[in-house]
């Protein structure tokens, strides 16, 4: 290997390492969803040392324009900090990638490349979006994840309304509302429900035609059809579906013409009694850059909120996933630990469980609380909300209606001792404080007093349903 070649390889490795650091920083700043949607697909191009120009590639013109408009300055600044020799950052369409062609042939057949490997698919009467084909049920359910059904969706108080509304939308009876708008934060199950609706609807309506895509993909295909002067065919195909499922509708912002086409499509489908389901991470009124007429259509049916999963639902989800690992012993204290500490979203909760089980199986170790704490450090630190002993004392006093000073007083009346013991127990469960530290926050009590309180409440929770209910209620309040 020549010296020049070795230098080129080292330069490529250095660029890749810098990009990994920059990408990780942007993920923390922008959040998982925005990063995954726009930053993660970026590929490193060439770096010209003479001009100080670095090229970054994206697979489509739409995504390249989007990233240029919204993140170009941030990307440029990050690269200049990481490498002072970078003077300019260009965001371009990858020369080896192109948008999928949308060609509508005679006789109603649609032919287009299924992916970048130039495989081709032909679907009678269907529409392909970015390699995903959607045709009549007789063609199968390509694009709908076979694992995301109502049977695998775990319900609780946080999502029961959305789940029931989704099942009604997929039933044989005409729904009382349309469109259905599923509103949930990232990782709470709205995409799961979209796929489940598709499965159930196709089961109940064997000859139905379904359209499923993300809002971004809808806009990409709209622009493609517009450029190829195929808008009439695009509209006819789009409005020929019986069920329209659009995910991440918050990304429909911008492109007034695409918004207008979606608006007309909604009106046309509703006029024919067809069904529409949208999903987003915010309420319709909170969508930025969406014209008022489209907002009114999105909110005219039922807006079903999906709240973050409470601890009971998180437990149920973990237990349902563990049914797949019947041969693996996962202690109850590990399940309780995961349910109590990974609270941001269901996706992270399930991901943490999968990571823990995979590590245990690959290394031959037993699943334990210590292993969970060691291997899930990143997930746990991202989810852990700092609960203070002062906050615990205040919440317990409000719950039991005792004065805050009783947490530190010497009174031994049962009416104040039991709340004080509950507060000590919660302080040990919810904070990293040691027994002596907890004792000092409760009037300078000895650590043995705290240990006694923790063990007593643990025992009472096993024997006394009322005490267990009190502790569960307090945990929900403190962790919400």
UniProtKB/TrEMBL annotation:
<dbReference type="InterPro" id="IPR013159">
    <property type="entry name" value="DnaA_C"/>
</dbReference>
<feature type="binding site">
    <location>
        <position position="189"/>
    </location>
    <ligand>
        <name>ATP</name>
    </ligand>
</feature>
<keyword id="KW-0963">Cytoplasm</keyword>
<dbReference type="Pfam" id="PF00308">
    <property type="entry name" value="Bac_DnaA"/>
</dbReference>
<keyword id="KW-0446">Lipid-binding</keyword>
<dbReference type="InterPro" id="IPR018312">
    <property type="entry name" value="Chromosome_initiator_DnaA_CS"/>
</dbReference>
<dbReference type="GO" id="GO:0005737">
    <property type="term" value="C:cytoplasm"/>
</dbReference>
<dbReference type="InterPro" id="IPR027417">
    <property type="entry name" value="P-loop_NTPase"/>
</dbReference>
<dbReference type="InterPro" id="IPR020591">
    <property type="entry name" value="Chromosome_initiator_DnaA-like"/>
</dbReference>
<dbReference type="GO" id="GO:0005524">
    <property type="term" value="F:ATP binding"/>
</dbReference>
<dbReference type="GO" id="GO:0008289">
    <property type="term" value="F:lipid binding"/>
</dbReference>
<keyword id="KW-0067">ATP-binding</keyword>
<feature type="binding site">
    <location>
        <position position="187"/>
    </location>
    <ligand>
        <name>ATP</name>
    </ligand>
</feature>
<dbReference type="Pfam" id="PF11638">
    <property type="entry name" value="DnaA_N"/>
</dbReference>
<protein>
    <recommendedName>
        <fullName>Chromosomal replication initiator protein DnaA</fullName>
    </recommendedName>
</protein>
<feature type="region of interest" description="Domain IV, binds dsDNA">
    <location>
        <begin position="361"/>
        <end position="480"/>
    </location>
</feature>
<feature type="binding site">
    <location>
        <position position="190"/>
    </location>
    <ligand>
        <name>ATP</name>
    </ligand>
</feature>
<feature type="domain" description="AAA+ ATPase">
    <location>
        <begin position="176"/>
        <end position="318"/>
    </location>
</feature>
<dbReference type="InterPro" id="IPR013317">
    <property type="entry name" value="DnaA_dom"/>
</dbReference>
<dbReference type="InterPro" id="IPR003593">
    <property type="entry name" value="AAA+_ATPase"/>
</dbReference>
<keyword id="KW-0547">Nucleotide-binding</keyword>
<dbReference type="InterPro" id="IPR010921">
    <property type="entry name" value="Trp_repressor/repl_initiator"/>
</dbReference>
<comment type="subunit">
    <text>Oligomerizes as a right-handed, spiral filament on DNA at oriC.</text>
</comment>
<dbReference type="GO" id="GO:0003688">
    <property type="term" value="F:DNA replication origin binding"/>
</dbReference>
<dbReference type="GO" id="GO:0006275">
    <property type="term" value="P:regulation of DNA replication"/>
</dbReference>
<dbReference type="InterPro" id="IPR038454">
    <property type="entry name" value="DnaA_N_sf"/>
</dbReference>
<dbReference type="InterPro" id="IPR001957">
    <property type="entry name" value="Chromosome_initiator_DnaA"/>
</dbReference>
<keyword id="KW-0235">DNA replication</keyword>
<keyword id="KW-0238">DNA-binding</keyword>
<dbReference type="InterPro" id="IPR024633">
    <property type="entry name" value="DnaA_N_dom"/>
</dbReference>
<feature type="region of interest" description="Domain I, interacts with DnaA modulators">
    <location>
        <begin position="1"/>
        <end position="119"/>
    </location>
</feature>
<feature type="binding site">
    <location>
        <position position="191"/>
    </location>
    <ligand>
        <name>ATP</name>
    </ligand>
</feature>
<dbReference type="Pfam" id="PF08299">
    <property type="entry name" value="Bac_DnaA_C"/>
</dbReference>
<dbReference type="GO" id="GO:0006270">
    <property type="term" value="P:DNA replication initiation"/>
</dbReference>
<comment type="function">
    <text>Plays an essential role in the initiation and regulation of chromosomal replication. ATP-DnaA binds to the origin of replication (oriC) to initiate formation of the DNA replication initiation complex once per cell cycle. Binds the DnaA box (a 9 base pair repeat at the origin) and separates the double-stranded (ds)DNA. Forms a right-handed helical filament on oriC DNA; dsDNA binds to the exterior of the filament while single-stranded (ss)DNA is stabiized in the filament's interior.</text>
</comment>
<feature type="domain" description="Chromosomal replication initiator DnaA C-terminal">
    <location>
        <begin position="388"/>
        <end position="457"/>
    </location>
</feature>
<dbReference type="GO" id="GO:0005886">
    <property type="term" value="C:plasma membrane"/>
</dbReference>
<comment type="similarity">
    <text>Belongs to the DnaA family.</text>
</comment>
């Amino acid at each position: 290997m020549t010296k020049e070649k070795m230098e080129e390889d080292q330069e490529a490795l250095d660029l890749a390492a810098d990009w990994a650091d920059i990408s990780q920083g942007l993920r923390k700043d922008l959040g998982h969803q925005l990063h995954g949607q726009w930053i993660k697909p970026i590929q490193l191009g060439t770096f010209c040392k003479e001009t100080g120009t670095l090229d970054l590639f994206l697979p489509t013109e739409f995504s390249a324009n989007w990233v240029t408009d919204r993140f170009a300055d941030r990307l440029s600044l990050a690269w200049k900090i990481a490498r002072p020799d970078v003077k300019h950052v260009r965001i371009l369409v990858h020369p080896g990638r192109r948008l999928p062609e949308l060609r509508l042939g005679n006789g109603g057949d649609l032919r287009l490349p299924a992916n970048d490997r130039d495989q081709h698919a032909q679907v009678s009467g269907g529409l392909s979006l970015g390699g995903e084909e959607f045709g009549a049920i007789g063609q199968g359910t390509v694009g709908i994840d076979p694992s995301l059904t109502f049977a695998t969706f775990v319900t609780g108080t946080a999502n029961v309304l959305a789940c029931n509304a989704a099942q009604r939308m997929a039933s044989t009876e005409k729904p009382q509302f349309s469109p259905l708008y599923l509103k949930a934060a990232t990782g709470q199950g709205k995409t799961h429900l979209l796929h489940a609706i598709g499965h159930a609807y196709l089961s109940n309506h064997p000859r139905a035609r379904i359209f499923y895509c993300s809002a971004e993909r809808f806009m990409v295909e709209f622009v493609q059809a517009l450029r190829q002067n195929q808008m009439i065919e695009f509209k006819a195909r789009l409005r020929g579906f019986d069920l329209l499922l659009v995910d991440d509708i918050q990304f429909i912002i911008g492109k007034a013409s695409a918004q207008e086409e979606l608006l007309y499509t909604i009106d046309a489908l509703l006029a024919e009694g067809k069904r529409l389901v949208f999903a987003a991470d915010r309420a319709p009124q909170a969508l930025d850059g969406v014209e008022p007429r489209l907002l009114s259509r999105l909110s005219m049916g039922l807006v079903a909120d999906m709240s973050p999963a409470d601890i009971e639902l998180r437990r149920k989800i973990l237990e349902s996933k563990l049914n797949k690992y019947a041969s693996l012993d996962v202690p109850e204290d590990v399940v309780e630990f995961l349910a109590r500490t990974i609270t941001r979203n269901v996706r992270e909760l399930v991901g943490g469980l999968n990571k823990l089980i995979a590590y245990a199986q690959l290394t031959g170790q037993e699943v334990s609380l210590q292993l969970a704490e060691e291997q899930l450090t990143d997930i746990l630190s991202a989810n852990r909300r700092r609960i203070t002993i002062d906050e615990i004392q205040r919440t317990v006093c409000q719950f039991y209606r005792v004065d805050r000073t009783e947490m530190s007083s010497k009174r031994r009346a049962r009416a104040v001792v039991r709340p004080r013991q509950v507060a000590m127990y919660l302080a040990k469960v919810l904070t990293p404080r040691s027994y002596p530290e907890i004792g000092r926050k409760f009037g300078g009590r000895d650590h043995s007093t705290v240990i006694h309180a923790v063990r007593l409440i643990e025992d009472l929770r096993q024997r006394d349903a009322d005490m267990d209910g009190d502790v569960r209620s307090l945990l929900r309040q403190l962790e919400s």
